[in-house]
Amino acid sequence: MGNTRIYVFPTSFTVERHLRCRLYSSSLGKPRQVTMLTRCSDPSRKAERFPVPESLLDGANVQPYVHNCCVTLHEGRHKYQFCIFFKQHCHLGANTILSSIDHIFRGDAVIMRIGASAGSVVNMRARDKSLADFVMHRFTRSIKHYPRAKLPRALTVVKPLSTRVNRRLAAQGHISAEVV
After folding, report:
1. 33, 38, 35, 32: which is closest to 15 by C-alpha?
2. Quick one: 125 exposed, middle or buried, by C-beta within 10 A (0-12, 13-18, 19+)?
3. Which of 40, 42, 88, 148 lies 20 to 30 angstroms, CA to CA, from 48?
4. Rounded to an integer, what distance in angstroms lies between the CA atom of residue 93 and that of residue 113?
């Protein structure tokens, strides 16, 4: 799968801004809040922002391009949108943050929030960290690895309002443990 991003080359008219995002690096032990360079089409606040994830992701000599996936998260009546930029290659280092017993995620990933009205990337807020961790956990489980990696372009995730209630229902056998 290629990427579906639009590249904006630096010119005298483009404005560069740094936005908060969440980095899941294979060289770190836990996710971190970092800032990513974005290029804006014009200096106004309503201008569309184009992220440059290559500045954060390692392994350019193994895999020079970056995959991306748009994720929509439904939590009750709220809808959140995120954009995941990642590198996934068998020769990249194992990412202990995103790996599980079932599979090993090889490479780095970064997630940004997409604004509701503008449809462009925006700064992550404090609550977005926990939502981003939940989305990344579900995203890495959705990747089919064998015989060849199948990477999603878009993904929809439903998050239960209360995981405590769902754990109780799963223990009683009313819902599957997959939901928890």
Report:
1. 38
2. exposed
3. 88
4. 26
Ordered DSSP codes for 30-88: S-EEEEEEEEESSSSTTS-EEE-GGGT---TTT--S-EEEEEEEEETTEEEEEEEEE--
Under a CB-based contact definition with an 8 Å cutoff, are residues 84 and 24 in contact?
no
Helices within the chain (DSSP H only): 128-142, 163-172
Res 91: pLDDT: 85
Long-range pairs for 165-173 at CB < 8 Å and ≥24 separation? none
Task: Write phi, then psi, for 31 (nearest 5 degrees).
Answer: -65, 150
C-beta separation of 110 from 21 below 8 A: yes
Least confident stretch, 1-15, 98-112, 166-180: 166-180
Nearest-5° Cα angle at 95, 160 to 38: 75
Tokens, residue 36:
């990513």
- Structure tokens, 180: 């928890």
- Please, are residues 17 and 122 in contact by the beta-carbon 8 Å criterion? no
Q: Distance between terminal CA atoms of the chain?
A: 30
- The model's pLDDT over 107-153, given as tens digits with 9 standing for 90+, comes to 899 999 998 876 788 889 888 898 999 888 888 877 765 555 566 66
Give the CA count within 13 Å in the CB-facing half-sphere of 174: 6
